[in-house]
Design brief:
About 75% of the residues lie in helices and about 0% in strands. With about 425 residues, it is mainly alpha-helical.
């Protein structure tokens, strides 16, 4: 199958698939001579990695804002007079707008421009955090998380597209691995730094720190981002249609990605509270759990590297998800915390590359916007419900660790969902031409 790059944003090219002709990449030269790159190419390369750094910072700021509720949950619960289930609602509300906006997010970017839409999203994130800071009213807290979540959806959908625009055809696997790592690194930074800031300056001080980081990301995108070149040619409505087998395959891929992230979310949302229940301080618990996220920054690209070279990506995906699930159970049931967290960090990132490559096996370039909209809709819907459900389980059992059991169960479901994905992929192959 001819395609540009590897993973979620791999770009199949029909022209390259026809008659074995030379592959053509959007925005990228295809006939450059071998050897050292020319001076214009070096300028483009430097610009490309600068853009990656800018988008990395913006996505890390989004991760910090998402995690900011869970990082100071014990103290925030006292301030708001909220229980664990209520905190779970606030965490999940960040993803609620994605259910409605993931599908039209790409169209919004086309209408107003990618950069302008991302800047608007960052402004909404800043406004939402300001609402959280100025009032402890529960209704204001909900409104602030929803407004910030709208901005986060626009960033999540459009910045992935912007990454493909810049890296299609050259080093996209490496670039996407780095870009993906902005999320665990942002969450790890939050778990380490925000409880310390809160202990020194209070809840408002922690929220102001989040606002400052979002403001810095807003300045970076405004000053340094530029589009890479001419846009792709428009496609017809017929070419942009998704067949029923492809729809089901994309929905199942979205569920796999969502359930995988549920496993992650239960760790960094409820494991700190579980450790506090066992006598740890809030700062120590956050720092300990952040080990998982710091090590995930290594295991995510390692997993992508192994997936590209493994004889079966599906085997790697299934085995690493099951190992991830088993380690969560061990942490929940009282195994020694530091070694279990280290093992979790080394294992948890391994399935990411394989999972993110699934949509590329289904979607042609003309169907990518619609297909990825469906993919993100499933993801956001699941991530809206999961933190609330985790909080309810913790409240029902009286122990925050019960939420980790939900994360483990979600991960154990991934191999079965993968089996369903492969079945629909076979149906698609029999009923319509493949994406390449």
């Amino acid at each position: 199958m001819a395609k540009v790059g590897v993973g979620l944003h791999a770009v199949p090219d029909r022209r390259a698939a026809q008659a074995g002709r030379k592959q053509v990449f959007l925005h990228e030269p295809t006939d450059a001579p071998a050897g050292m790159p020319s001076a214009p190419d070096l300028i483009v390369m430097r610009g490309r990695w600068t853009i990656l750094a800018v988008l990395f910072a913006a996505r890390a700021a989004m991760a910090v804002q998402f995690q900011s509720i869970a990082a100071i949950a014990p103290e925030l619960g006292k301030t708001l007079n909220a229980n664990l289930a209520d905190i779970g609602v606030l965490i999940g509300l960040y993803f609620a707008p994605g259910i409605a906006l993931a599908l039209p997010g790409g169209a919004i970017g086309r209408r107003f421009g990618d950069k302008a839409t991302v800047l608007a999203g960052l402004v909404m994130m800043l406004a939402g955090e300001a609402l959280l800071c100025i009032s402890t009213s529960w209704s204001v807290q909900i409104a602030g998380r929803l407004i910030a979540g709208i901005g986060g959806v626009l960033l999540n959908v459009l910045m992935t597209k912007m990454m493909v625009d810049w890296f299609a055809g050259r080093q996209i696997a490496t670039a996407m691995a780095i870009f993906i790592n902005s999320w665990p690194l942002g969450i790890a930074l939050t778990l380490v730094a925000l409880p310390l800031i809160q202990a020194e300056f209070g809840i408002a001080g922690a929220q102001i720190a989040v606002m400052a980081l979002i403001g810095a990301a807003l300045a970076l995108v405004g000053l340094f981002y530029r589009p890479p070149g001419q846009p792709a040619a428009p496609v017809s409505a017929q070419d942009a249609r998704l067949g029923l087998p492809a729809v089901w395959a994309v929905l199942l891929a979205g569920l796999i990605w969502a359930f995988y992230n549920v496993g992650f979310a239960m760790i960094f949302s409820f494991a700190p509270s579980m450790l506090v229940e066992r006598g740890w301080s809030t700062a120590a618990a956050g720092s300990a759990v952040s080990i998982v996220l710091w090590l995930a920054a290594l295991s995510v690209p390692l997993g992508g590297y192994l997936a590209d070279r493994a004889g079966s990506r599906n085997t790697l995906l299934a085995a690493s998800c099951l190992a991830f699930a088993a380690l969560i159970v061990l942490l929940w049931r009282g195994s020694p915390v530091p070694p279990t967290l280290v093992a979790l960090g080394l294992v948890c990132g391994l399935p990411a590359g394989s999972i993110m490559s699934l949509p590329a096996r289904v979607l042609a370039p003309a169907t990518r916007a619609l297909g990825m909209g469906l993919f993100y809709t499933v993801y956001y819907a699941t991530m809206l419900i999961a933190p609330w459900l985790g909080g309810r389980l913790a409240l029902w059992t009286g122990h925050a660790g019960a939420a980790l059991g939900l994360g483990s169960a979600a991960l154990m479901a991934c191999p079965m969902l993968l089996w369903g994905f492969e079945r629909w992929l076979l149906v698609q192959a029999r009923t319509a031409p493949r994406a390449s």
